[in-house]
U2 small nuclear RNA auxiliary factor 1 (Callithrix jacchus), 275 residues
Amino acid sequence: MNLKGVHLVRCPNSLEICFPTWLCWHTGVIAGSTGYGSGLSVYLNSIKGGVNCSFYFKIGACRHGDRCSRLHNKPTFSQTIALLNIYRNPQNSSQSADGLRCAVSDVEMQEHYDEFFEEVFTEMEEKYGEVEEMNVCDNLGDHLVGNVYVKFRREEDAEKAVIDLNNRWFNGQPIHAELSPVTDFREACCRQYEMGECTRGGFCNFMHLKPISRELRRELYGRRRKKHRSRSRSRERRSRSRDRGRGGGGGGGGGGGGRERDRRRSRDRERSGRF
C-alpha cells in the first residue's frame, strides 16, 4: 500500500496528531485513540525512513514513546539494562490517609534512597554478574521517572538479567526490564542539572541522576576493588602452590564468614519483601 501523501489531522478534543479514519481502520487502530496498536506501529516504522531517534539512542527513552516519528532501535545485545519506573522517591509519593502530602526530610530521603540503591546493586552483582555502573533517574517525566540503569561488565550477564528480571517482582510490582542502548552516561546526563542550573526541572528530557552518599559509594565500589585484589592474590597463591607441588587444602576455612554474611543479607532482603 502506497501511503505517501497521507495528511495527518488533529484529533477532536485532543492535542494528539492522528491519522485519517480510513488509515486507522486499515491498520487496525481507531482514530483518536492514544493506545496505538501493532498495526500502526508497523506503519510508523515503515514511513520513518530509517532516521534514528537521537533521544532514544542517547538516553534509552523518549517522551513520545511508540508515537515518535523516528526509529527506536532496541538493541539485541548490550552491557546495560533498564529497570523501568522501579524507584519511588518518597518525597514525590508520600501521602497521609487524608490525601495530604507527608513531609519527608532530606536526611530520611537519602537514607531511603541509599537502602534502595544498595539492595538493587547487591542483587544485580550476586545474582547476575559484575556491575560496572548503576544509575537512578530523579526525573519526573513518565518515560524516565524512577528508571534504574545497570551497566554490567559482560553483555551475557545483562542478557541473563533481563530474561530473569521480567519474571520477578519488586516492592509488590512486576519488574519491566529491557536492554538499553545507553553505554556512555556522560552523553545521557543533563550537564546543567549537574551544575545546579537546569531550568526544565524534573521534566527535563536528559537524565537527572540521583547521587548516593559518599560512604555508600566507597562501600559498594571499594568492595568490588577488594574482590578483584583478593582474586588476584588467590590466583598467585594457586600458582605458587602448583610450582611447589603442594596441595591447597588448608585455605578453605576462611570463606565461611563471607558465606554467612551473604546468607544474612539474603534473609534481610526476604524480610524486606521487595525482591
